[in-house]
Design brief:
The chain is α/β, with parallel strands linked by helices. The chain folds into two domains: 209 residues, NAD(P)-binding Rossmann-like Domain (Rossmann fold); 176 residues, NAD(P)-binding Rossmann-like Domain (Rossmann fold). It is 40% helix and 12% strand. It has 15 helices and 13 strands. Strands 3-2-1-4-5-6-7-8 form an eight-stranded mixed sheet, sandwiched between helices. Strands 10-9-11-12-13 form a five-stranded parallel sheet, with helices on one face. Helix 5 links the parallel strand 4 and strand 5. The radius of gyration is 24 Å and the shape is elongated.
């Protein structure tokens, strides 16, 4: 028997008459919405933040991956609009969920945003819609949570509406890949949903990679991030050991990566940042309890990476004591870089925030300079830092601090001047060695 809902929706997607709705216009949702619009779909963006809607409708982007010109082009062409009125979901044929999936204080998954969004979709759900979850989560979320909420309407997945999962793979600041060129993993609840997923993303993304189930697609995303988290933890642990032995971990890595097989370089740092790597592995750790199977590597990696900010501050305190004869509790420290990675304004889970907090806990004073982050916005965990502003990198300012701590190695920072002006520098990114700026007062950590 022909499924009319499937046939009609498939035809709409193939002809790009389908209207797409993207819920959550952040680092994932907005680039996706503009990519879909640029490919020819009409797209409505949804967000609960009215300020974002005002900016977007005025042609002002707040995300580096989407410039004002691209936003204005799609808006002027009538292919993109944004709203905080979720009743408009009823007019969307394809709805993509791109909302946060953070952790609770106890490192358990917080799916409240996914659940709330699913209820919003359910309020206007109709036959002939494709619902897609892109938010990173543990295997089973799409089928066991989103599907159940939607089916409480009386409509059935695979018959009336269709359900799929496609993990986001955004990499803020990456100049080599964008939303359209990063291969897209897709899966669906049943063969027809899978076919719709491939057709929909195939219109906007160069390479679509189908997998057998939503749970498999969810596991792919977690595996990618766990791989990075575990390997970064390994080099962070090696860093502390080699430092005790008087061995430079950076020199070791540079030499090791000359091997043309069997080795992939990962680099240490002051801690993990971004939404994915510090958070996603714990989604699988939580899910593993259901199967009574331990995730020792994941949990150990989390412990090591979470301990790095305190280790770095310890090295800072040691350097201040030995080289400056001054306790951290009486010192002023300038942290370079608030963003979690270089050349982006993204401060999600940034270790720099934790570094500032630890320095303050130990009685010191910590300020920051970041060319991409002029002021610390409201954050859930670091409300005490809200409103702190970036310090200008002038000779007068830099020389007023007892030490400079390199947390994020933005390319636009004048490291030569820092080396000349600061009496003590603790470098967690090896940026001074990379630029040939070696000196006795520059300490690697």
């Amino acid at each position: 028997m022909t499924n009319t809902s499937f046939t009609e929706l498939s035809n709409k997607i193939q002809t790009q008459e389908a209207r797409a709705g993207v819920i959550g216009l952040g680092y994932v949702g907005l680039p996706l919405a503009i990519t879909l619009a640029n490919s020819g779909f009409r797209v409505t963006g949804f967000d609960v933040d009215p300020a974002k809607i005002v900016d977007l409708n005025a042609g002002k982007s707040y995300i580096e991956a989407v410039n004002d010109k691209a936003l204005t082009r799609e808006t002027a062409a009538g292919r993109f609009s944004s709203t905080d009125d979720f009743s408009e979901l009823a007019s969307c044929d394809v709805i993509v969920i791109c909302v946060p999936t953070p952790l609770t204080k106890h490192r358990d998954p917080d799916l409240s945003y996914v659940e709330a969004t699913s209820h919003s979709i359910a309020a206007t759900l109709r036959p002939g819609q494709l619902i897609i979850l892109e938010s990173t989560t543990y295997p089973g979320t799409t089928d066991d949570i989103v599907k159940i909420i939607l089916e409480k309407t009386g409509l059935k997945s695979g018959k009336d509406f269709f359900l799929g999962f496609s993990p986001e793979r955004e990499d803020p600041g990456n100049r080599d890949f964008d939303t359209s060129s990063i291969p897209k993993i897709v899966a669906g609840d049943g063969a027809e949903a899978s076919e719709l997923m491939q057709a929909f993303y195939g219109k906007a993304v160069k390479t679509v990679v189908p997998v057998s189930s939503n749970a498999t697609a969810e596991a792919v995303k977690l595996t990618e991030n766990i791989f990075r988290a575990v390997n970064i933890a390994l080099v962070n642990e090696l860093k502390t050991l080699y430092a005790a032995m008087g061995i430079d971990i950076w020199e070791v890595i540079e030499a090791a990566k000359t091997k043309p097989f069997g080795y992939m370089p990962f680099y240490p740092g002051p801690g993990l940042g971004g939404h994915c790597i510090p958070i996603d592995p714990f989604y699988l750790t939580w899910k593993s309890r259901e199967y009574e199977l331990p995730t020792r590597f994941i949990e150990l990696a989390g412990e090591i990476n979470s301990a790095m900010p305190r280790y770095v501050v310890g090295k800072l305190a040691e350097a201040l004591d030995i080289r400056m004869g001054k306790a951290l509790s009486r010192s002023r420290v300038l942290i370079i870089g608030l963003a979690y990675k270089k050349n982006v304004p993204d401060i999600r889970e940034s270790p720099s925030l934790r570094l500032m907090e630890i320095i303050h806990e130990r009685g010191g004073t910590a300020d920051y300079h970041d060319p991409y982050v002029g002021e610390i916005p409201s954050t859930r965990e670091y409300m005490a830092l809200k409103g702190r502003r970036s310090v200008d990198l002038t000779k007068e300012e830099v020389t007023s601090y007892d030490a400079v701590l390199i947390s994020t190695d933005h390319d636009s920072v004048d490291y030569a001047s820092l080396a000349a002006w600061s009496p003590l520098i603790v470098d967690t990114r090896n940026i001074f060695t990379k630029r040939g700026l070696m000196a006795d007062h520059i300490i690697k950590s």
